[in-house]
Amino acid sequence: MMSKVRKAVIPAAGWGTRFLPFTKSVPKEVLPIIDRPAIQYIVEEAVAAGIEDILIVTSPYKKAVEDHFDRTRELEAVLEAGGKTAELEQIRALADLAQVHFVRQGEALGLGHAVGVARRHVGDEPFAVLLGDDMMHPRSPLLREMIAATEERGTSTIALMRVPKEDVSKYGSAAVEPIEGRDDLVAVRGLVEKPPPEEAPSDLAVIGRYVFTPEIFDHIERTAPGKGGEIQLTDAMATLAAGSGVNGLVFEGGRFDVGDKVDYLRTVLELGLEREDLRADLLSLIRDVAAREGIGDPS
C-alpha cells in the first residue's frame, strides 16, 4: 500500500486551436457546458474522487481560468442585495471546492513539460493528472477506480478505452498484457503516440486521465524533446512502463471529448437533457429542429 492520492494536476496552458477564433481571446477551458465552464467539471471530478489539492498549469493568457475559482466580492454583494441566494451560494462554493493553486508553464514545450512543472508542488507523492479536453460524466467512477488501483498496487495507472482501429491514430496506443484476477486492469508493456492504424499495438487508446507515482518526474526530465521541440508525456510513460511499471484501467462510456466541436455539442445536449430544469424545453427544441430538417421525431 502506498500513500493516499491527495493532489491533482490539470494542464491548461494550450492554445485551443480547434476552437479558433473563439479561443483567440478566451481560454478553451472556460468553454461553457450549459452554465459552467468545462474546467469546473474537471475540478469537481477530482474533488469527487477524494482530491484535496489541485494545481492548474496555465499560461499568461489564462487569467480567466484563475478568476473563475477566485472570490468576486462585488458580484457577491450584488447577488446578496438582490436576494439571489441560490446564485450567491453557487459562486461562493466555487472558492471552497478544494485548495486550487496555479502555476504558469512559461514555455509551450509539450504536455510532458507541463506535468513536469508541477514537480515542486506535488513533491514525493502519487498524484492524478486530468486533461481538460477529456471530460468524464459526473457519475463516472473512473478516476476513483484509478486512484484505488494505484494506492493498492503502488503502480502508476493510466486510463485506456477501446476505439475503432481506424481512429487509433488520434491517440496514444498501448501494448498490454492481462493481470491475473482483473478483467479491467492490464499491465502496459509499451506505448506509441498516434501510430498509423496498421502499426498500432492494440485498439486500446490512452485517454486523458492518469494517476502517477512520483517517479514519472525523473522520466520526464530524461525525455528528449520530440516533434516541434515538445516533451511528450507518452514517451516518459513508455520509459516508466519499462522500469517500475504502469497499469492501465480499461473503461467504457462516460467520456466526452470537449476539444472536438461535434462532441462538445453532444456534451451540452446529453448533460442538458439530464437536467430537470432544461429537459422538456430542450426536447421540444430538438423536435422542432429535427422536423424542420426532415429528420423525423427524435423521440
Automatic annotation (TrEMBL):
The Nucleotidyl transferase domain covers which part of the protein? 7-267
Pfam families linked to this entry: NTP_transferase
Family designation: Belongs to the UDPGP type 2 family.
* Catalysed reactions, as listed in the record: alpha-D-glucose 1-phosphate + UTP + H(+) = UDP-alpha-D-glucose + diphosphate
Q: What class of enzyme is it?
A: transferase
Q: Which UniProt keywords apply?
A: Nucleotidyltransferase, Transferase
Q: What is its EC number?
A: 2.7.7.9
Q: Name one GO biological process term.
A: UDP-alpha-D-glucose metabolic process
Q: Which PANTHER family does its entry note?
A: UTP--GLUCOSE-1-PHOSPHATE URIDYLYLTRANSFERASE
**UniProt superkingdom:** Bacteria
Task: Please report the organism this UniProt entry assigns to the protein.
Answer: Actinomarinicola tropica
| UniProt entry tagged with the keyword Glycosyltransferase | no
Q: Does the keyword Ligase apply?
A: no
Its recorded name reads: UTP--glucose-1-phosphate uridylyltransferase
Q: Which molecular function GO terms apply here? A: UTP:glucose-1-phosphate uridylyltransferase activity
